[in-house]
From TrEMBL, chains A, B:
An annotated GO cellular component: cytoplasm
Coiled coil residues, start to end: none
Segments traversing the membrane: none
Protein name: Acid sugar phosphatase
Gene Ontology terms, MF aspect: metal ion binding; phosphatase activity
Gene3D superfamilies, sorted: HAD superfamily/HAD-like (3.40.50.1000)
Organism: Halalkalibacter hemicellulosilyticusJCM 9152
SUPFAM superfamilies: HAD-like
Cofactor: Mg(2+)
Alphabetical list of CDD domains matching this protein: HAD_Pase_UmpH-like
Active site per UniProt: 11 (nucleophile), 13 (proton donor)
PANTHER family, per the entry: 4-NITROPHENYLPHOSPHATASE-RELATED, HALOACID DEHALOGENASE-LIKE HYDROLASE DOMAIN-CONTAINING PROTEIN 2
Amino acid sequence: MTKAYKGYLIDLDGTMYRGSEKIPEAIEFVKELKQQEIPYLFVTNNSTKPPSDVAKHLREMDVPADEKHVFTTSMATATYISQIKNKAKVCMVGEEGLKLALLEEGHELVEEGADIVVMGLDRQITYEKLAKAALNIRAGATFIATNGDVALPTERGLVPGAGSLISVLSVSTGVTPTFIGKPEAVIVEQALDVMGLTHKETIMVGDNYHTDILAGIRTQMDTLLVYTGVSTKEQVATYDESPTFEIDSLSEWNIVKS
Amino acid sequence: MTKAYKGYLIDLDGTMYRGSEKIPEAIEFVKELKQQEIPYLFVTNNSTKPPSDVAKHLREMDVPADEKHVFTTSMATATYISQIKNKAKVCMVGEEGLKLALLEEGHELVEEGADIVVMGLDRQITYEKLAKAALNIRAGATFIATNGDVALPTERGLVPGAGSLISVLSVSTGVTPTFIGKPEAVIVEQALDVMGLTHKETIMVGDNYHTDILAGIRTQMDTLLVYTGVSTKEQVATYDESPTFEIDSLSEWNIVKS
């Protein structure tokens, strides 16, 4: 199966690896992109790690990647905030990846008087962080969320994801946040900007219909669903809009330069 | 305004006091109940304190009260769990009041293999507590919540209440809990059992239409809304079902023995 594209947006967990398990066909797929000098960008809803850490993890999995190949929802969120207000005062609930992305974009982290409340996954969550964020939202701060994933796959099972923690603030204040990560178009449009390509020149590759593929569909891109992760053929067959391409393994995809 | 009742169920915050501020008419109201030897029971959605602490706080506010005058949503929750399973294995997320109520009822606190996951307000919330609770719910434990209040009034403003913290688990697992506190009938029916009175012999007194009054309505009790707290006449005028009685202050209510 093939079609020529100038660039690839690629999901990580379930597509490039499964937790700590390698997916050899995915590694070969990226090596071939690199070989043919076709641009690729990993687009992830993981807000907790800076891109250098994500790239390091990929290299440990034998995937050719450096920092410039990684675009996280934290980076997209920091950029989105700049479009609302340059050097904004931000009340943040999240981990290192979100913090660094906000600071690199020139925003200021505050506890009171925030222009923006932004929340992502925070495994060091405290009641006080939630209380401060809620008070800032009630005082009129714009509420933004890195991503809506309600569950996080771990070796223990599915534990609460960013989207479920974020519901504390939305339920308590009655304010629904603007979500940035997949399946929203925001993160994909920014990723295309980073690559300098249009949605017609690029394809979105991922294992999760409800995040990766929907994000591609909403951006009017072609999409490639690989059945190595979350979504199953049985599920996808019941959905209104199909991915452009569906394959069992990335080895089935012949990379052709546009 | 008056009607004779054999017993009174009475709300606390907004009805007996406002935060640390006394409401003198409410104090006199309870003193008169005591004088006339009419049974009264304070029914509270506060799951964090044991009844002895609640009674101590009331006495400090000059309200005649001891432990037997207090019925908390934690006590109602512990009793409700016994109706599902005697001496249940319970994974708990909550504070001291909930913990003590569960232990007094003979339940066992566990981290894995729970029959029941119960959650209330927990201002020492951690991600690990939420993760364990979510894993127990996904493994089939019955999910129960002390109360659904989404916001908690404090001197800083409205901060997240039990209901918003609980949404982490409901959003993440897709399982909606059984709520016990007002406006549910469960807590009121149990309070009537504690008093040994029927719903026709008893009146529910409170300041909040959406919790106190609705709980009374759902239990087919008479209800007395006192406008010293959350609800306003303008709001209540728009609701389908009115309280039985509405007054500006408890001094307007003449207590008559049934």
